[in-house]
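FAQ

Q: What does a record look like?
A: Structure on top, sequence underneath. For example:
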């Protein structure tokens, strides 16, 4: 947000009581930020700033050159810091400041792995071949939409380039501990625990900083705050992760299945590292990135140590920074399980928390509800970084945007009064079976079958009047609106005619005009039916209990609409795509779907009978 021109700014400052900036002008003492209504006010000129570049020493050698890696950071601070004012920092770490390379994704039109029988080819993947984006020999100014907003209000803004990117040394490793140490080192420097130098090699300290730091960003830039908070580093007082990853395994895998980030079929940890590998030395990180390709395991999809060190939920017990988590309910890039499971873990460990959930996708709320968002963000940073007692920590924990784009505050999320309710698909799924809200299918067996066709999208399968490539079940039209808040789970009794297959479960909203909308979806590899870290053979013809967790949502089904459950094998947009033909058989007598219903059984039965 831009601040008023200097004349207007001066008038605003002179209108304040003889404290803060006005007092500084009158007495010559260091200026101070000004707060009104618990929010920092724009009393500093955002154009009157000091911009400096430093290289912070990180205690890690990710490029194996025998020297500590160096993190390039750019500091933007109010010029008033030259007059003795100390300020806290809003810090955004990122691998993207220097752009990215042209990198091909993995081929996803491949056969699935069969234990003991090998697997189809993974397909070619291009690398940068030694050619990256143009990297300047010296630093260029970094900009961010929040920079002027914060510097005008008495915060410094610090940008940090991830290891292996831009003017930092080291290597990109997509979420592992090296990357976390690199980002953390800037917090250490701001608190006097790490060394830094300028471009000439002279030591640089952050004597202008109070040490209090808040990390913030969107997507990868929001993921790094989760990672650093999990180290428990002193001085990191709060984080604002927006559309952020908390577990890299679930970004690229799901219950043993190789699953894409929405819109990026075939991307994986190595592809992303290759994309952000923008440091000038184009060869030093080649062995490191080749190691990612080897160890990420696109064959079995198992959860291994490679992924465990990239699971920040394991470190939630070390988090002491408060967390304002933000996520789009329709984000299929960084899916909602990333925020939901992180948020639940934070609550369980007593971390101060708040959540914003909006109806957009992979987006920053700045573009959706700017004034209300900036007010919340201002109060949050003012409280945790400036120590202002504004009560933000006592406000409702959840702010949720509804389907009609209105906003509501809730005590927390998932909403209170939500309980799991089990419903049961009944025969007819080749055309459209029913969903009973009370009773399972009786008898010893009621089996319905489908044949995989990975060339068809879920939307095509959902809108087909009948199909041998999916099973589809529906409720009656809702008599009144019903709200789902949390995670839908499918418990499936499945057998397979091949030793490898995908499993995809989808929850749909069917409108009165017959059009459908995907509410949520989830995936599983039946070879990992017991444990995502362990592949077990699938014996054709044998029935297995397969659990599929769909992505968490907060969704209101309107009156007159129907809930539908769709079962398919491959998901064209997300899973690997083997040749068509794998057969799945579903025993309805042992199958159910669990819905997180606000108001529980009474609410569900009032809607559907």
């Amino acid at each position: 947000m831009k601040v008023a021109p200097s004349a207007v700014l001066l008038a605003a400052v002179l209108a304040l009581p003889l404290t803060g900036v006005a007092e500084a002008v009158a007495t010559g003492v260091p200026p101070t930020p000004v707060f009104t209504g618990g929010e920092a006010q724009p009393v500093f000129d955002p154009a009157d700033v000091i911009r400096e570049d430093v290289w912070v020493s990180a205690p890690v050698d990710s490029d194996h050159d025998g020297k500590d890696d160096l993190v390039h950071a750019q500091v933007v601070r109010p010029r008033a810091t030259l007059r003795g004012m100390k300020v806290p920092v809003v810090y955004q770490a990122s691998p993207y400041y220097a752009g990215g390379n042209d990198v091909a994704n993995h081929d996803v039109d491949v056969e699935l792995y069969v234990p003991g029988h090998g697997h189809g080819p993974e397909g070619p993947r291009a690398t940068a071949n030694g050619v990256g984006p143009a990297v300047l020999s010296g630093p260029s100014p970094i900009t961010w939409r929040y920079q002027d907003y914060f510097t005008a209000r008495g915060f410094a803004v610090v940008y940090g380039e991830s290891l292996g990117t831009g003017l930092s040394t080291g290597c990109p490793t997509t979420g592992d501990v090296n990357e976390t140490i690199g980002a953390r080192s800037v917090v250490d420097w701001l608190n006097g625990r790490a060394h830094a130098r300028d471009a000439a090699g002279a030591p640089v300290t952050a004597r202008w900083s109070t040490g209090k730091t808040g990390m913030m960003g969107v997507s990868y830039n929001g993921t790094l705050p989760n990672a650093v908070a999990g180290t428990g580093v002193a001085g990191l007082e709060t984080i604002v992760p927006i559309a952020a990853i908390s577990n890299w395994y679930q970004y690229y895998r799901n219950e043993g299945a190789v699953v894409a980030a929405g819109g990026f079929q075939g991307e994986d940890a190595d592809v992303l590292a290759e994309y952000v590998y923008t440091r000038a030395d184009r060869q030093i990180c080649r062995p490191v990135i080749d190691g990612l390709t080897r160890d990420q395991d696109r064959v079995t999809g198992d959860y291994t140590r490679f992924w465990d060190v990239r699971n920040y939920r394991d470190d939630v017990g070390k988090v002491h920074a408060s967390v304002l988590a933000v996520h789009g309910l329709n984000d299929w890039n960084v899916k909602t399980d990333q925020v939901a499971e992180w948020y639940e873990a934070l609550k369980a460990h007593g971390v101060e928390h708040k959540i914003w959930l909006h109806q957009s996708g992979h987006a920053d709320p700045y573009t959706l509800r700017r004034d209300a968002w900036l007010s919340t963000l201002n109060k949050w940073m003012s409280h945790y970084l400036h120590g202002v007692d504004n009560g933000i920590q006592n406000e409702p924990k959840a702010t949720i945007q509804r389907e009609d784009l209105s906003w509501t505050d809730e005590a927390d999320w998932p909403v209170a009064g939500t309980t799991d309710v089990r419903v049961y698909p009944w025969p007819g799924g080749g055309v459209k079976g029913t969903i009973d809200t009370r009773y399972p299918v009786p008898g010893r067996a009621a089996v319905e079958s489908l044949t995989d066709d990975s060339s068809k999208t879920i939307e095509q399968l959902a809108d087909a009047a009948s199909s041998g490539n999916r099973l589809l079940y529906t409720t009656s039209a809702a008599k009144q609106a019903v709200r789902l808040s949390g995670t839908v789970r499918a418990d499936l009794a499945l057998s397979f005619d091949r030793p490898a297959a995908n499993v995809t479960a989808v929850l749909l909203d069917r409108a009165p005009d017959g059009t459908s909308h995907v509410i949520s979806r989830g995936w599983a590899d039946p070879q990992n039916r017991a444990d995502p870290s362990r592949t077990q053979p699938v014996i054709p013809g044998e029935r297995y209990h397969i659990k599929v967790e769909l992505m968490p949502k907060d969704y209101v089904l309107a009156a007159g609409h129907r809930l539908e459950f769709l079962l398919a094998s491959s998901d064209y947009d997300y899973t690997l795509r083997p040749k068509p033909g794998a057969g799945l058989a579903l025993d309805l007598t042992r199958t159910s779907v669990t819905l997180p219903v606000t108001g529980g059984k009474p609410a569900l039965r009032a809607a559907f009978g």
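Q: Is there anything notable about this one?
A: The mean pLDDT is 92.
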